[in-house]
Design a protein that fits this description.
Pfam families: TetR_C_32 (PF19344), TetR_N (PF00440). InterPro entries: Homeodomain-like_sf, HTH-type_TetR-like_transc_reg, HTH_TetR, Tet_transcr_reg_TetR-rel_C_sf, TetR_C_32. This is TetR/AcrR family transcriptional regulator. It comes from Amycolatopsis acidicola. The protein is mainly α. The chain folds into two domains: about 55 residues, Orthogonal Bundle (Arc Repressor Mutant, subunit A); about 170 residues, Tetracycline Repressor, domain 2, CATH 1.10.357. Helix content is about 65%, strand content about 0%.
Length: about 260
């Protein structure tokens, strides 16, 4: 689990691709070019996913990028390499919305609602990316499970956040970890159900989950004699920043 918790750092910033210079100006320029091209192809793959579904082929990605397959393979060793890059991009998209929501200086219920809406907003906009990463047939490394890893990251961060608040209210923080994993599992399972069924609007499913999560928190707090106004910001705004590991895989040197 240490590899996961290393990515959850308070106050940490996500490193940017190309920051590690080699001292060789020509080599650094070429490295930045490869990183930029690889990123362009990942965006093309996202477009291909929207058009072709989670069972897309490398040919689909090449067409979306306007290049031939050999050019694509200069930047990705194989489909598994592209899968990892798509997973990293998916994590970036999710965390770019989820982190500000989790750390918003809002009252408890609006804060919960905002975080849930961030998650559902991403899977609504990129449903095929989520399907690909969760259970698609696209070739992937044996040990790669981006959705499970992100779930672990978010649960670890949420555990720290809940633990901070529980200690602030002089409550036993031992419940923070099972609370966090229970919440994250419920949200993920509900998200998968919603993507397939769409039997209600995004606003409705977010509101239902908001009320369920708040009812659980409020109930346990009241059992300990702690009463929190759901519509007033807490005196101290505890935050935890999630940092996704940067993509250091640049593919093969392109000619």
């Amino acid at each position: 689990m240490s590899a996961v918790t290393d990515r959850v750092k308070r106050g940490a910033k996500t490193p940017k691709a190309g920051e590690a210079a080699t001292g060789d100006a020509r080599r650094d320029r070429w490295r930045k070019h490869r990183v930029a091209r690889r990123a362009e192809f990942v965006e093309a793959a996202l477009k291909a996913l929207d058009e072709n579904g989670p069972d897309l082929a490398m040919e689909d990605v090449a067409v979306a990028a306007g290049v031939t397959k050999p050019v694509l393979y200069r930047h990705f060793a194989d489909k598994a390499d592209l899968y990892v890059a798509l997973g990293q991009r998916g994590t970036e998209l999710l965390f770019s919305r989820l982190v500000p929501a989790i750390n918003a200086e809002l009252a408890p219920v609006p804060r919960i609602r905002m975080a849930l809406d961030a998650f559902f907003g991403v899977i609504e906009e990129h449903p095929n990316l989520y399907r690909l990463l969760a259970r698609g047939s696209f070739e992937k490394p044996v040990d790669a499970d981006v959705v499970a890893e992100d779930k672990e990251l978010i649960a670890t961060a949420l555990s720290a956040l809940l633990g901070d608040y529980m200690r602030m209210f002089e409550m036993d923080s031992g419940a923070a970890e099972p609370w966090a994993y229970g919440i994250v599992g419920m949200v993920q399972n509900t998200g998968e159900w919603w993507l397939e069924r769409r039997s209600m609007s995004r606003d409705s499913v977010v509101e239902y989950l908001t009320q369920i999560i708040w009812a659980a928190i409020d109930g346990l707090c009241r059992q300990r004699g702690v009463v929190i106004d759901p519509n007033l910001p807490l005196e101290e705004n505890k935050v935890v920043l999630l940092s996704a590991a940067p993509d250091h895989t640049e593919g093969k040197d392109a000619g």
